[in-house]
Design a protein that fits this description.
10 strands, 166 residues, alpha/beta, single chain, two-stranded antiparallel ribbon, eight-stranded mixed β-sheet, globular, 7 helices
């Protein structure tokens, strides 16, 4: 069981923990905890170790798979550790939402998909499955924003898609 987490940012970034998270998002949010929710990383000691080594000691790191995250993490808004929740892809974020992890906004910072069908920004290339999952989250009331770092203006995912198609 983890301490109570104040979820400040829910993000999809296939690089998980990297410079934009450590140098931009953590200071902006004043986060003191990162939760990496990624089935592959949670089952790979080497990947988990690399992530833990990249994060400064004063920042708590939790690495878990989607089901354990939803079952064992007491998350809320307004109290507890300011937390960034990172998913490596849209599908696990959708799965966590369906299992009971509720969030009202999903930040998409970086996705590269070899079989992408749409290039939203230079760092967000989505497949049909990604678009399907994003649409399901939007239909459940989640706002989807595209933004790499806090100083960028957030772009609404569906506005970007409409501008591409017109």
């Amino acid at each position: 069981m983890h301490h109570s987490l104040d979820i400040a940012l829910v993000r999809v970034d296939n690089r998980l923990v990297h410079g934009q998270i450590l140098e931009a998002w953590i200071p902006y949010i004043k986060a003191d905890c990162i939760v990496v929710v990624d089935d592959l990383t949670a089952s790979d000691m080497f990947r988990e170790t690399v992530i833990r080594m990249a994060v400064p000691r004063e920042i708590a790191v939790i690495v878990c798979n989607v089901e354990d995250f939803v079952k064992t993490t007491p998350f809320q808004t307004g109290s507890g550790h300011k937390t960034i929740v990172l998913f490596g892809a849209v599908a696990p974020a959708r799965k966590a939402f369906e299992l009971g992890f509720r969030f009202d906004k999903l930040n998409i910072g970086n996705i590269y998909n070899d079989s992408y069908t749409i290039c939203c920004t230079p760092s967000v290339l989505l497949s049909e499955n990604d678009i399907h999952d994003i649409t399901l989250l939007r239909d459940a009331g989640v706002r989807i924003e595209l933004r790499r770092v806090p100083r960028e203006k957030p772009l609404d995912f569906f506005d970007v898609v409409r501008s591409i198609k017109t």
